[in-house]
């Protein structure tokens, strides 16, 4: 479906980028068995820009669209993703140009690895485990953005909360830590990642460190250094 944003934006340096009003893509994350996560990737058709590489479903923004609307629309058009199954967690401008053009990655979750249907812009669509994304030939723009978009897995420790059930019901999910990146927070005690300490004090801020804890996590009980993060309930439920 063509919109009024389809076309090239050219800057004073002569570089062109697709999307008269900028572009957006959807990084959709879904849970895997065992606490892990997968992201939806598109194997781009040979005729497309950087054809044969893997990237996110996405494309040009129309003049009336927000980045979120454009990214969700593109995922529906190119991958058959039901917009009602998408829960947006964050937006990141992951590329820009002198022309004022920008590419915004919309980070979102869904409850399961949804069935997909490809259009002519895709050779294939795949739910790829997050730790296997870089095993594929990535679109250069996506490859440059991926380190900042990838979510670090973490196991939620809810023992300090009076209402742990409320937080547990919201898991697993992506948690936006702003300039510290993203967490994939889950509740599988045997799953990947260090432990996330959840506190009720909503005035606290996220603080990551390599810490030797005195209890709670099995690794800590053996005196091992555990990658930990402190989160508030507000951060998780935002």
From TrEMBL:
Keywords (A to Z) from UniProt? Hydrolase, Plasmid
Parts forming coiled coils:
none
Which Gene Ontology molecular function entries are recorded, alphabetically? bis(5'-nucleosyl)-tetraphosphatase (asymmetrical) activity
Write down the superkingdom of origin. Bacteria
One Gene Ontology biological process = AMP biosynthetic process
The top of its lineage is: Bacteria, Bacillati, Actinomycetota, Actinomycetes, Mycobacteriales
Question: Which residue positions does the secretion signal occupy?
Answer: none
Protein name, per record? NUDIX domain
Q: Which Gene3D superfamilies match?
A: Nucleoside Triphosphate Pyrophosphohydrolase
